[in-house]
Amino acid sequence: MSTQERNFRILRGGGPSGSPAEFQSYSLELNEHATVLDALEWIRVEQAPDLMYRHSCHHGSCGTCGMTVNGKPKLACLTKVEDLAAGDIKLEPLVGMEPLGDLAVSPVPLMSAYPANSGYIRESEVNKDAARPEVVDRFERFENCIECGLCMAACPVGDEFQGPAVLAALNRELAKTPERRAEILHAAGRPDGVYRCERALECSRVCPTAVYPAKHIMELRKELEKESGAE
Amino acid sequence: MKKYHVVVIGGGGTGAAIAYDLVKRGFNATVLDRGELTSGTTGRHHGQLHCGARYAVGDREIARECMEETNTLRKIASESLESNYGLFVALNDEDEAFAPTFINACLESGIPAEKVPRKQALLMEPKLSEKIGTVVQVPDGTIDAWRLPLQFFAGAQQGGAVIRPFCPVTGIDIEGGRAVAVRIRDLIQRQDERIEADLIVNATGAWAPQITKFAGIDIPITPAPGTMLAVRKRLCNMVISHLHPSGDGDIIVPQRGLSIIGTTQYKTDDPDDIKVPREDVDFLYRCADEMVPEFSKQPFHAAWIAARPLAGKSESIEDGRGLSRDFVCVNHGEHDDVQGLMSVIGGKATVLRAMAEKTVDAVCHELGVQEPCTTTETPLPSHRQYYRKGAK
Ligand SMILES: Cc1cc2nc3c(=O)[nH]c(=O)nc-3n(C[C@H](O)[C@H](O)[C@H](O)COP(=O)(O)OP(=O)(O)OC[C@H]3O[C@@H](n4cnc5c(N)ncnc54)[C@H](O)[C@@H]3O)c2cc1C
Ligand code: SF4
Ligand code: FES
């Protein structure tokens, strides 16, 4: 297996401890399969035992490992080091979350913005006409959105915006619970709602699980227009 | 009752469920993890909600517990589960010969295993291999490895538990033969701290020996990592398992838009020093294709590895496959002359609640508290609740 030495420049410090944030360099040999998360794990074990970063599933399902990689929001566990441009790799915490220090953040801003009563299960779109065990009403699955916040970080619209992930969740709720239409459209049409979207489409570009938040925002706008047309 | 303070070391699924059970029984609880919650084995597991069928032939009791806990989790944490059932498929004559034993063992363990006509199975899961023989349907499912524990953490937090990620335990203070406090490094505040405890529960899984060492105790645990491989397409809705005595690469778990095959098993010395052996990836592709031939044609998504804690010293374990996957709760006051310290090791993510119940029963016994477990009925808060503003 071929290996290559790569140098990481990681923003250390910051967060509530008040310690100044500054870049530190770490070099290590990596094979062609290594992800940014693998690299962080090995840096922590071999060089920086106090290094803080978030991770859990290592396969793009939990949404904890979002960070800024060479200036772009990415999931560390799905970003192969080999695919990054030659030269130093710069790692900084994800924008839009509360910094805890080093690369770790708290997702409180994002999680608090989700509609409180939105579910996480949906009907599976796979083999829709398939037979099912008698006891299973419908095949179900988790929502696509893994609540990673990459879309919020990439979105050029500033504060006072519910943000792509939350609006996408609202549109999913509309599809799943049409009886809550009035309440959901009211939330989507608020001043911090869909009309703040500038259609930059950055959210759909960075989303690691193909939620396409921009599409959901457009759909919500259409629904809102239908309502105002009906008045 | 005096409000005892129990410190739980380890913020995996086990620590989450213990903290929830503790606060429900009136304890003060603090959970400490060296990193993010579930950054050990829990977040990385295969994601199978085990109804117990996989274990029934080997151990009816474990299988029965898995079935009960599957039903309980469907009641209290349905938002973290895809409850689509599973199919065990026979692929050769040996499997066919094993099928009656398997079905019988399931039924004896209270698992409603049901033979499904081959044709019907292909209607349920059209991507299954044409070569399948006997098919048995069981109540398996998929777990969100991160969100299920988070629901327990949210419940624990609501009950007053203090949950502190990024606080590695660096020592345990022993006074007069009793563990009385833990020493931590709070990485967020960048300071060292001492936390007093009436009892300490070590729920650090494969890292457990590193914690007991602080109390001068050597516990024989061997980390046994296994690999999982995900492709970027959901090929099935149900969990697909090879109908044979358990082995490597014999379960495909669907999750969101992914299909995940696992797993393998090795032994190692250090649970932090694990890397996916590349030969595992080819091996897992081959195994998956036997059950679902399109598997290896899908785009690669990720390969990762997680370490099980196996009871026993490395030299006395062959490959670990034969060892029970049950969990052990060791009271070090009885085994090692250090009072006030317990270690909880092993088990499965599926039975996290039951492990917590047994552990907190032991805690109650040790501290002379009489409070029954009440974690089976009330639905847990949403996983997002844990991170809602003001939830802390
Ligand atoms: C390959 C594999 C596949 C599996 N698949 C499944 C499955 O499909 N279904 C299923 O039900 N089960 C499965 N399991 C089993 C399941 O993953 C485990 O039983 C469960 O996750 C164990 O959780 P835990 O909380 O005991 O340990 P862990 O999740 O490992 O938690 C221990 C925690 O302790 C922390 N820690 C370590 N040192 C310190 C310290 N010094 N201070 C503070 N904290 C510390 C770690 O960071 C870690 O978060 C699988 C296991 C493996 C290995
Ligand atoms: S919509 Fe996509 S990018 Fe945004 S939080 Fe959800 S998964 Fe992440
Ligand atoms: S570690 Fe779970 S998404 Fe990256």
What is the element layout, followed by pairings?
The complex is a heterodimer of chains A (231) and B (392).
Chain A (H helix, E strand, L loop, with lengths): L2 E10 L9 E10 L4 H11 L19 E4 L2 E4 L13 E5 L4 E4 L2 E3 L1 H6 L7 E3 L16 E3 L7 H5 L9 H13 L4 H8 L13 H5 L6 H18 L1
Chain B lengths: L4 E5 L3 H12 L3 E5 L15 E2 L3 H4 L3 H17 L4 E2 L3 E4 L3 H16 L5 E3 L1 H7 L10 E4 L2 E3 L3 H12 L3 E3 L4 E7 L2 E9 L4 E6 L2 E4 L5 H6 L7 E11 L7 E4 L8 E5 L2 E5 L15 H14 L8 E12 L15 E5 H4 L5 E6 L5 H16 L25
Parallel strand pairs in B: 1-2, 1-13, 2-9, 5-15, 13-20
Antiparallel strand pairs in B: 3-8, 4-8, 5-7, 6-7, 10-11, 11-12, 14-17, 14-18, 15-16, 16-17, 19-20
Helix pairs in contact in B: 1-6, 1-10
The complex binds flavin-adenine dinucleotide (FAD), iron/sulfur cluster (SF4) and FE2/S2 (inorganic) cluster.
CATH architecture of the largest domain in chain B: 3-Layer(bba) Sandwich
Please write the CATH class name of the largest domain in chain B.
Alpha Beta
Radius of gyration of chain A over alpha carbons?
A: 20 Å
Shape of chain B, please?
globular
CATH topology value of the largest domain in chain B: FAD/NAD(P)-binding domain
Model regions low in confidence, pLDDT < 50 over at least 5 residues of chain B:
none
User: Considering the protein shown, what is the CATH homologous superfamily of the largest domain in chain A?
Assistant: Alpha-helical ferredoxin
Number of strands of chain A: 9
Kindly give the count of domains of chain A.
Answer: 2
Overall spatial form of chain A: globular
User: Biggest β-sheet of chain A: count, sense, barrel?
Assistant: 5 strands, mixed
Specify the structural class of chain A: alpha+beta
| Biggest sheet features of chain B | 8 strands, mixed
Strand content of chain B: 25-35%
CATH class of the largest domain in chain A: Mainly Alpha
Query: What order do the SSEs of chain A take from the amino end to the carboxyl end, as H and E?
Result: EEHEEEEEHEEHHHHH
